[in-house]
Amino acid sequence: ALELSYQFGDPAITPLLLKNVADTKKTPAERERAMQLLARAKDAKLAEQLPTLLNDKELRTATIRALAMYD
Fold first, then answer.
1. What count of other Cβ atoms lies within 10 Å of the Cβ of residue 33?
2. Distance separating alpha carbons of residues 18 and 15, to the nearest angstrom
3. Residue 10 DSSP class
4. Are 57 and 28 in contact, with CB atoms under 8 Å apart?
5. I need a surface site. Which of 11, 23, 27, 46 has the fewest CB within 10 A?
6. At what angle do helices 28-40 and 13-22 cross, to 10 degrees?
7. For residue 48, what pLDDT is reported?
8. Are 12 and 29 in contact (CB under 8 A)?
9. Among candidates 40, 41, 46, 42, which has minimal Cα distance to 16?
10. Which DSSP string do the residues of 39-67 spell out, in sequence order?
């Protein structure tokens, strides 16, 4: 449901996705999916978080992929 809302431009979803990326209680898959959605849209707030997320072992690979989307 989050993915569809985001794809249809629901502005209320972005803060929720950013929260999911940072929430270590979420599964790595949930966090990665939120990151992918935001990275595809080149979300500026995600870009600010990415350097810090490189320290997260569970998300390191996904973070590197997300960083590549911004170039």
1. 18
2. 5
3. -
4. no
5. 11
6. 130
7. 96
8. no
9. 46
10. HHTT-HHHHHHHHHHTT-TTTHHHHHHHH
At residue 16, what is the residue type? Answer: L
Q: 27-70: per-residue pLDDT in tens?
A: 999 999 999 999 998 999 999 999 999 999 999 999 999 999 99
In this model, does residue 17 exceed pLDDT 80?
yes
CA distance 13 to 16: 5
What predicted TM-score, i.e. pTM, was given to this entire model?
0.86
Measured CA angle at 8 (ends 71, 51), to 5 deg: 30
> In whole angstroms, how far apart are CA 29 and each of 9, 32, 36, 62?
22, 5, 10, 10
- pLDDT value of position 6: 67
Burial class (CB in 10 A: 0-12, 13-18, 19+), 22: middle
